Amino acid sequence: MLSFTLAFYLNAHRTGLRKSNDVITKLILLTVTTGMLTTLFNIADLIAYITHPDNLYVLCFNFMLGKLYANALLTSLNSREYVLKDALTDHETLGFTSSGSNGNVRTEPAEIHIAMDKLVVQRLTIKKPFSSDL
Q1: What angle, rounded to 10 degrees, do the helices at 2-12 and 18-51 form?
Q2: How far apart are CA 101 and CA 82, in angstroms?
Q3: pLDDT 10s per residue in the chain (134 long)?
Q4: Burial (CB count within 10 angstroms: exposed 0-12, middle 13-18, buried 19+), residue 65
Q5: CB-based contacts of 14: which residues, under 8 Å, 6+ apart?
Q6: Which residue intervals of 52-90 are DSSP H helices?
Q7: Residue limits of the DUF6534 domain (predicted)?
C-alpha cells in the first residue's frame, strides 16, 4: 500500500525535465518491485492469522518479513548509483519535453539562471564590567 502511494505521488509530481522524469521513473520501478514482495508476504501473514489464529503459522511469515524489509532497505541503498547514473552527467543540456500538436515529442531548451547570495553573521560579544570596576 505504501509503495503504491509513493509511486502515485511521484508520478503526479513529474517536473517536465527529461532527466528528472527518468529518475522519477526509476524510483517508481524500484519502489514497486521492492514493495510488491513484502506486500505479498504481508497479505499471506494476514490470511494465515485470520484462518488459524491459534497456530504458529504466522511466525513463519513474520520471520520472513523481517528479512524482506532488510533486503528492501539494502536494495534501495545499493540502487542509488543506478538511479543517479544518468542524472549527474554535465555535458548534456536541460530541456523540457512536451508533445506537439501531432503527438511528436520535441525538446525545447530551457534557460535557467541561478544566483547565490552570501550571508555573513558575526558574533557580537559584550564584556560585562566586574563588580570591582563599579
Answers
A1: 160
A2: 34
A3: 677 788 888 888 788 788 888 888 888 888 888 888 888 899 999 999 999 888 887 888 889 998 998 988 888 888 888 777 766 664 444 444 544 445 555 555 556 666 666 666 667 677 766 665 55
A4: middle
A5: 20, 21, 24
A6: 57-78, 80-84
A7: 2-82
C-alpha to C-alpha distance for 117 and 50, rounded to whole angstroms: 60
- Residue found under cell 504466522: 58
* C-alpha span between 129 and 24 (Å, rounded): 61
Rounded Cα distance, 45 and 62, in Å: 7
Q: So where are the chain's domains?
A: 2-109
